[in-house]
Amino acid sequence: MRQSSGIGVLDKAVGVLRAVAAEPCGLSELCERTGMPRATAHRLAVGLEVHGLLHRGADGRWRPGPTLAELASGHGDPLLEAAASVLPRLRDLTGASVQLYRRDGIHRICVAAAEPASGLRDTVPVGTRLPMSAGSGAKVLAAWSDPATQRAVLAEAIFTERVLLDVRRRGWAQSVAERESGVASVSAPVHDGAGNVVAAVSVSGPIDRIGRRPGARWATDLLAAAEALHQRLKSG
């Protein structure tokens, strides 16, 4: 019988980790093993996934994530460590909302964010899971994805393969009222030390404030932030 800490959400989260550690599983199997309602099991698994404690593969099954090994070895997630210093500077420079997205299959997850203290903003909470069918961050992650992932994304996306080719050529993407009415954004790829695209950094906000050409306004600053993230990952 498992011990209880008296902290319900913590005990449930540990229960999810134990269930996945026993054998990779999808949501239905996770519910069976933990006895949790689907909504609860899904919320906890996604939250653990955001922090790297779980990882969901292309088959949709959760497995123990890289953060467990990082914690055991005393090393944190270098991307999130880099974002902690780079994202606030980009937020202060633009006065807009800033997000960092990682791809998970044909979805993207907000893994870090920096919001302005006041004024109009486009709040995307850390842990938010979005489809790759719309938005500048989706275009960036799709543009540098493998061919199979690109095909799967394009089957549902409002953008085309030609758009992704333009994104790769230009080095950044923008969107206006794609993901959400009244919101515009611009995004750039983040490369790791080996040159692989591992994330997309984005600046977003209400169209009324940032206009319908956010790329013309902030692409240079955004690319500089993406390069700063790359240099930190490279040196780490």
TrEMBL record:
GO molecular function, one term: DNA-binding transcription factor activity
Keyword hit for Transcription: yes
Domain HTH iclR-type: 7-66
UniProt feature coiled coil, ranges: none
GO biological process: one example: negative regulation of DNA-templated transcription
Domain IclR-ED: start-end pairs: 67-235
Domain of life: Bacteria
Database matches in Gene3D superfamilies: 3.30.450.40, Winged helix-like DNA-binding domain superfamily/Winged helix DNA-binding domain (1.10.10.10)
Entry keyword set: DNA-binding, Transcription, Transcription regulation
A matching Pfam family: HTH_IclR
SUPFAM superfamilies linked to this entry: GAF domain-like, Winged helix' DNA-binding domain
UniProt keyword DNA-binding present: yes
InterPro entries, alphabetized: GAF-like_dom_sf (IPR029016), HTH_MetabolicPath_Reg (IPR050707), Tscrpt_reg_IclR_C (IPR014757), Tscrpt_reg_IclR_N (IPR005471), WH-like_DNA-bd_sf (IPR036388), WH_DNA-bd_sf (IPR036390)
Official protein name in the record: IclR family transcriptional regulator
Source species: Pseudonocardia asaccharolytica DSM 44247 = NBRC 16224
